[in-house]
Amino acid sequence: MNYKLNEKEYETKEITFKEVVKMEKCGVNFNAIENASFSQAEALISYITGLSKDKVDFEIDEHLKKGGSIEEVFLCFNVLIESDFFKKVGVKK
Could you tell me the sign of the dihedral formed by the alpha carbons of 61, 14, 83, 87, in that order? Predict the structure, then answer.
């Protein structure tokens, strides 16, 4: 699955159990997806795109300056929700 931020398309990593554990270690809380915070989005975007958190912050700021919405930023969580892994384990929106 791909994720678009600041007019750039990123091919995301495949979501597997191992990747979920790594994301948790990076600060993604899977129990709070429905009420995700900005830091959760930053951590997830950093992980799935391979960008540093500083670069993610820059790209989000640029995205918003160009008229992009914060809702578009939070579409990063769709990468998780729509992954085969989360469909198999029963995580829903």
Answer: negative
